[in-house]
Amino acid sequence: xxxxxxxxxxxxxxxxxxxxxxxxxxxxxxxxxxxxxxxxxxxxxxxxxxxxxxxxxxxxxxxxxxxxxxxxxxxxxxxxxxxxxxxxxxxxxxxxxxxxxxxxxxxxxxxxxxxxxxxxxxxxxxxxxxxxxxxxxxxxxxxxx
Length: 145
Known about the structure:
Blueprint: E1 5-12, H1 14-26, H2 31-42, H3 49-58, E2 65-72, H4 73-76, H5 79-90, H6 108-119, H7 124-134
């Protein structure tokens, strides 16, 4: 464990957790690295209203599994302003009386979970190919499930 990393727990589905693990195995990395890469892929898109609303929609489905990940502190620090940007773009209330899917408040884990779930809605092979581009030279094939 590096001292400049932050531990967060995200709520995802069993299928999403399995896909994260397959992506990590296919790229000879760990789930935390794949989550960080996914976050880097998703965060820049959240400035437009459509993607911000898609992110909120990702929170509406139940996510019974907890996945603990380690993120670089600088990347984790982006989660709170990203949540604020989502609130600004969508006009979503941030108060406790809001429906659960709209509670982005200052919870970095909630923001991370929504971003990861949004990222994982893409075609798995496309995700693997994009990871390969991010990590030039690593194989693109998904590991066998």
